[in-house]
Amino acid sequence: MKKLVVFSLVVLFITGCNSGTKKMEKELKALIDTLEVKAKPVETGAALAYFNAAVTGKDEEYKKSSEFNIQMSKIYQDTVVFARLREIKESGKIKDSLLTRQLNILYNTFLGNQVDEKKMEDIINAQTKLEQKYSTFRATIDGKKLTDNDIESILKNSANSKELEKCWLASKQIGENVGADVIKLVKMRNEMAHSLGFANYHDMSLRLSDQDPDQIEKLFDELDSLTRDTFSALKSDIDSALAAKYKIKPEALMPWHYQNRFFQEASAIYNINLDGYYAKLDVVQLATDFYAGIGLDVTAILANSDLYEKEGKYQHAFCTHIDRSGDVRIVCNIKNNDQWMGTTLHELGHGVYDKNIDMQLPYYLRTPAHTFTTEAIAMIFGRLASNPYWLRDNAGISAEEADRISRDVKNNLRLQQLVFSRWSQVMFRFEKSMYANPDQDLNKLWWDLVEQYQLLKRPEGRNNADWAAKIHIASYPCYYHNYQLGELLASQLQVYINTSILKVGEYDIVSLSRNPEIGTYLLNSVFRPGAKYQWNDMIKRATGEELTAKYYAGEFLK
Ligand SMILES: [Zn+2]
């Protein structure tokens, strides 16, 4: 047995040292260096222009940003470089692990850009036209125009079933308006995917972002069977509460009774309002002190950031790593309330990840392991804003108060997670099936999935493009599942921190405050490695297991 091991080690040693490998590794390294020199100023320019555009709202910054983006795609369209990358990849001669990772990342980036220029242009144009339709379309009720905010507000606050129904139906008008165009775009995307050798665009999107479609589906299947019964029980609770609110029988509840357009957020059935705790505090100071307490300094990030509301400024929030060399910034519109406490902690979660990537790593590995791994870190910290013990340790509420609100807060968090989780099943399965066969009856497919996973009732005879009312299907294709994967990983990391660092129960609610060991763990196991390891490899190194739905289920299903 021992001899065999020695023998195989020798073989590895010989292959690792053969001159073909050395020569090719040297060539690949030179090729990557040349690319970095070309790409870095363009990528930095694009990120900076996007940041400035978001903060100022100025046309010329938006223009600059899109020009940089075009330049960037030209760099990765280069057919000669791609051909060489392919040869190097297919030779199997690259043995160095860092070079292999860079090769895989670059190969996928180039492959996604090897599209006929005319075809690419047609897709971009079709998508831009659709985006404009989505943003300029206004639903109407009895001739009166409504914004999305108007609609959400009526769905949340009205207690009149007739009004709710009218409003919900109005929110689907956009679907009928764009449905046929979306199908056309889906077919164009599929054509592009076929030309690159993929089964369809869904398959291509996942594979190019380093996700195996079968593996992702397995995770969603696992999550489905784990959440089904608890969701069904909770859905009955929601139904009882809503039936009482609307003074109807639970059987009479229709999709318009669930307080948002797609039942993607929890209906308000618990009595909680955390805004009062934050009103007299400084959200930015709270976040700074909290991160310092776990050994992560965010002052340099905040110094470069744009934190408060301004005329013409982008209204949401994001984090950007401008130069892959530590210039990390967030954009927020902070107010001292619960929502912005959560968002600030969330964006700074992305920030500490980016900021602490090992800057000695090669340029193309100086990113998080995957978009959903940075989402997971942001979620762990974002969730804290409504954590009663975090409020106790950071926002000065009393221990009694924390205990008093803890049950409702916990129930609400669980409800949010389960409602979102079932909704993400609909999104994932709809997109997968739509790209596999865009000619099927999509209106029927949508409602079949909504009934199966969200347990909502299909309005009688409904045969409309309600799926096309969800802008993500048209504009952010095949991405939605990453939000759910982020939630799974957030729970997995949380359980690891609880059991291995804090030595408390797996699912105890903890404030994660004033313990630098937490920062040290994340720093060494998640942040510093950047994209050095494939995402599942990183997760296994950090938690002892590959990504699993088990801990998410444990945290929210009890
Ligand atoms: Zn995020």
Polypeptide structure, described:
- The chain is mainly alpha-helical.
- It is built from 24 helices and four strands.
- The longest helix has 38 residues, at 19-56.
- It is globular and about 80 Å long.
- The two termini are 47 Å apart.
- Mean pLDDT is 93; it is low at 1-16.
- Zinc ion (ZN) is lined by residues 346, 350, 375, 378.
- Residues 346, 350, 375, 378 line the site of zinc ion.
What's a concise summary of this model?
67% of the residues lie in helices and 3% in strands. It has 558 residues and is mainly alpha-helical. Strands 1-2 form a two-stranded antiparallel ribbon. A two-stranded antiparallel ribbon has the order 3-4.
Topology:
Blueprint: H1 2-17, H2 19-56, H3 59-77, H4 79-91, H5 97-113, H6 117-136, E1 139-141, E2 144-146, H7 148-157, H8 161-171, H9 173-195, H10 201-208, H11 213-246, H12 275-278, H13 283-293, H14 299-303, E3 318-321, E4 328-331, H15 338-355, H16 371-382, H17 388-394, H18 399-436, H19 442-454, H20 471-475, H21 481-501, H22 516-527, H23 535-543, H24 550-557
Antiparallel strand pairs: 1-2, 3-4
Helix pairs in contact: 2-3, 3-5, 4-5, 6-9, 7-8, 9-10, 11-18, 13-15, 15-16, 15-22, 16-21, 17-18, 18-19, 18-21, 21-24
The chain binds zinc ion (ZN).
Lateral arrangement of strands in the main beta sheet: 1-2
Mean pLDDT value: 93
Which structural class should the secondary elements be placed in?
mainly alpha
In DSSP terms (H or I, runs of 4 or more residues), the helix count works out at: 24
Cofactors, ions, other ligands? zinc ion
Detail the poorly predicted runs: 1-16
